[in-house]
Protein: Flap endonuclease 1
Amino acid sequence: MGIKGLTSLLSDEAPACIKQFDIKTLFGRKVAIDASMSLYQFLIAVRQSDGQQMMSDTGEVTSHLLGFFYRTLRMIDYGIKPVYVFDGKPPDLKKEVVRVTALIQLVKRFGKREEAREQEEEKKDIADNQLLDQLARRQVRPTREHNAEVQRLLTLMGIPWVVAPSEAEAQCAELARAGKVFAAGSEDMDTLTFGTPILLKNLTASEQKKLPVTEINLEKALEGLNMPMEQFVDLCLLLGCDYLDPVRGVGPKKALKLIQEFESLDRVLEHLHHVEQEKEQKKKATETKEESGKAEGASDDSDKEAEPAPKKRAGGIHVPEFWPYEEARELFLHPQVNEGKSIELKWEQPKTEELGSGAEERVRRGCEKLAKAVGQKQQGRLDGFFTVQPRSDDAQAKRKPDQSGKGATKKARRT
Structure:
């Protein structure tokens, strides 16, 4: 899900934090990638022409393995060093959200099935096939076996991987903060809310899409929004995230205005509660007035048939009843992660013989390509040779020309 509307909000309010470039620009960079999200995407998207998942001769699903193999190979081709991060145990709050969402989806699917029964007989087979395909994709759930298979594949490819204690996005952000990687690569904006200094989007997009990589700089985002990290997290909670449903009636612009005005989500909710109470009081006063008016004119209208009152459309701002924002805030500000500085990342030579044994020809060629790319000594980035340091006042003073010295004499001669 990510953070609803955050990308468009940053684009409007803090455009300096976003830039786009070709993937080749990332040559020599190390990037932490959310493996669990990629695994889910591959199990859904990598399929045969008939819609079935890719399988081996023995009937085992290989969609996820092929997806990881070729996506990793593509990044290695561009000189990028990926490290994959897998989800650990999900937070209890996220489990509850997933459970409620599953119930809602179940109700929606049941409604669609009932509607499908009313379709014409000649269209029924087509509708059923489409529904079955949609349901099959929705029911895909990565298993421990899927994770273990991908981890073994990455080990054979010489690519480092990490299992997070909890959320993979949070661990990616921690690796970036610790300087172990240049950035976190994910399509979910909540990786930014977890505190990654730099977020890369579209990094793992397929080559056919030809999308530029989008970089979002957290420091510039906070500067553009004119708020500290704590307020930024509150803004993201108000917009809606994996842990909380969005507040109905509050869009990105309204959410930003509320946080900037009241400075914290706690005070925003107090304000909204006060506004809601005032509306309820006005509503009750209006209803009482209408009831008294009806009682006075009841004798005159006794012969008339009462007409039902038109239904009023529900509007305004509504905070969900179950909205544990304090717990969600804690998960973002103090996530459960392994300390980045203690994690060693090593990119090694691929075990080509094990990786390519029994595989088809294109996989063997890929293995050879991978071994060649890893074996070559990569050219370092220019910014890796230099460290830009702020100039001290003393140094600046030394750089100023002495008006009474040689410079002044030369200038006088020219004139």
User: Anything to note?
Assistant: The mean pLDDT is 77. The domain at 6-228 is CATH 3.40.50.1010 (Rossmann fold). The chain is about 50% helix and 5% strand.
